User: Which sequence fits this backbone?
């Protein structure tokens, strides 16, 4: 364990926190057209109204941390995925504007609802494709990106993109199961089952595809002794999936959401098994891409102050707005 490893885990934590917290509200946006206009959509929107903008703090922390702690990786990954990053940011902008204006401009609410759905879908798809572009490899010459504008586009990145969309839809449906009541909750249960099936199918497809992208991935998953460690991930995924479907069948409210989060955590563990210790697979390790030690120490002091504050106000916000939601808009 050294400073570079510590920073790698801090950024991984920020990314996972973003997936956990912004994933479910993106998922609600993805599922939004499936809910009936009126009470169902109002409940869905109110389920995330108090927390959605604060959730994106973790995206800033992850991206800013990558730039500061691993500047070379940042300088390589962004040019390789510029179209996806721009699409993601535009999607988040459209989603945020639509979220505010659907309450203030009821005459055009159907258009704002569509913008909320489209922005959420584009942002989720772009995030998944960015992950796929990173896993399939980035062409580097010297210390700079050497690929083309379209290297990020491939069948594999489309698969990972759709997989993230399905996973976010699962998180969103499970969050609504927990936070809503009446017809909206019943609809959320049905959507959660369908999203869980889609997520597991796509997760399986990505898991089977990934080892054949690179010999390193295949070695990590199918050679001894790493096989004994790696094989626990799909085993735990199968157990978690069984518990998820069981909790949905028994009409549990909170358990499905936490089990869906467990699926994402296991997916991130699988990602770590495949990539570690590379930040750009087969090219840049975390130590190759790291900032100087003095810079890491200086930033660590800052994160030691800000991270507890972020965790505290996030926890407080979720505690204050705990419980079921109604249909009255937040203004």
Assistant:
């Amino acid at each position: 364990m050294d400073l570079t490893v510590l920073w790698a885990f801090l950024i991984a934590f920020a990314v996972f926190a973003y997936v956990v917290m912004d994933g479910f509200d993106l998922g609600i946006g993805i599922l939004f057209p499936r809910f009936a206009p009126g009470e169902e959509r109002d409940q869905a929107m109110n389920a995330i109204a108090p927390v959605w903008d604060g959730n994106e703090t973790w995206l800033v922390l992850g991206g800013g941390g990558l730039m500061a702690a691993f500047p070379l990786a940042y300088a390589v990954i962004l040019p390789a995925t510029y179209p996806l990053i721009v699409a993601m940011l535009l999607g988040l902008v459209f989603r945020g504007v639509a979220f505010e204006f659907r309450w203030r401009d009821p005459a055009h609410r159907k258009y704002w609802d569509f913008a909320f759905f489209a922005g959420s879908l584009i942002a989720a798809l772009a995030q998944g494709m960015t992950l796929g572009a990173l896993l399939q490899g980035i062409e580097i010459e010297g210390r700079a990106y050497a690929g083309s504008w379209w290297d990020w586009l491939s069948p594999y990145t489309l698969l990972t993109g759709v997989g993230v969309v399905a996973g976010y839809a699962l998180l969103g449906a499970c969050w609504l199961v927990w936070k809503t009541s009446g017809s909206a909750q019943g609809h959320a249960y049905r959507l959660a089952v369908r999203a869980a099936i889609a997520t597991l199918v796509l997760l399986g497809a990505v898991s089977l595809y990934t080892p054949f992208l690179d010999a390193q991935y295949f070695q990590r998953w199918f050679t001894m002794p790493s096989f004994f460690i790696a094989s626990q991930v799909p085993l735990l995924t199968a157990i978690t999936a069984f518990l998820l479907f069981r909790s949905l069948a028994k009409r549990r409210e909170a358990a499905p959401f936490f089990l869906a989060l467990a699926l994402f955590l296991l997916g991130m563990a699988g990602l770590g098994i495949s990539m570690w210790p590379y930040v750009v697979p087969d090219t840049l390790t975390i130590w190759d891409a790291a900032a100087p030690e003095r810079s890491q120490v200086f930033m660590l002091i800052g994160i030691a102050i800000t991270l507890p504050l972020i965790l505290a106000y996030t926890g407080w916000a979720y505690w204050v707005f705990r419980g079921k939601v109604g249909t009255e808009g937040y203004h």
Summary: The first helix runs from residue 3 to 31. The beta strands are 140-141, 144-145, 278-280, 284-285.
